[in-house]
Specification:
Elements lengths: L8 E5 L6 H14 L4 E5 L5 H11 L8 H25 L3 E5 L2 H11 L4 H11 L7 E6 L2 H7 L12 H15 L5 E5 L4 H16 L13
Parallel strand pairs: 1-3, 1-4, 2-3, 4-5
Keywords: ATP-binding, Kinase, Nucleotide biosynthesis, Nucleotide-binding, Transferase
Pfam family, one: Thymidylate_kin
Catalytic activity: dTMP + ATP = dTDP + ADP
Length: 219
């Protein structure tokens, strides 16, 4: 089941409070137990440049930032992360696990921010060597459950309000519709139940042909 996961690119994404960090940690642990070499990163971030961009993006002090600025900063951090970390890890045959990717910008800035999902993807096609991963797992969660999990000071994006975050959830679900490289998981369930669904989705990827035809398609 996991024999062909080397060199695959898997993203866990979803609204704030969906449990991405927990599920990515559990998935990395499970893959390691199966003998799959993994590399885990976060977007934006991981690289020195990406972490500085992340600080700018998420600081509540930058509440004047426009949606187009957000799009371009997220894409810049992503391009750097690809060049420094993701591409080399894939070339070494590791299974790359990523906390957020292009799907986030489509849902947050593209749909909720009304920039346009198609415009986000067009910029990605120009800026990124690899647009879509082999698999995107959307951890879907309702606002009430998500809010209950955010028991810390909220960053600038998290502070945007219920209406915005309701549209973010809509954006993720809209993006996943009809796409074989997306799986939607109900992350309002307990941690173990969500993990089982994530493992099942990744296991199916491990037994399927490469989906690299999706890499630069304008979806």
């Amino acid at each position: 089941m996991t024999g062909t996961l080397g060199g695959r690119f898997v993203v866990l994404d979803g609204p704030d409070g969906c449990g991405k960090s927990t599920q990515m940690r559990l998935l990395a642990q499970w893959l390691g137990e199966q003998g799959v070499s993994t590399a885990s990163f976060r977007d934006p971030g991981t690289t020195a440049i990406g972490e500085k961009i992340r600080e700018i993006l998420l600081s509540p002090a930058h509440d004047a930032m426009t949606t187009p600025t957000e799009v371009l900063l997220y894409m810049a951090a992503r391009a750097q992360l690809w060049a420094e970390e993701i591409a080399p890890a894939l070339q070494r045959g590791r299974c790359v696990l990523l906390d957020r990717w292009l799907s986030s910008t489509c849902a947050y800035q593209g749909h909720a921010g009304q920039f346009g999902i198609e415009k986000v993807i067009a910029i990605a096609n120009d800026a990124l060597d690899r647009v879509w991963p082999d698999l995107t797992i959307v951890l879907d969660v309702d606002l009430a459950t998500a809010a209950g999990r955010l028991n810390r000071a909220l960053d600038r994006m998290e502070q945007k309000g219920d209406s915005y975050h309701r549209k973010v959830r809509e954006g993720f679900l809209k993006l996943a519709e009809g796409r074989p490289d997306f799986v939607v998981v109900d992350s309002s369930l307990d941690v173990d139940a969500v993990h089982e669904q994530v493992v099942a989705a990744v296991g199916r990827l491990g037994s399927s042909p490469s989906q690299k035809a999706w890499d630069r398609q304008d979806r």
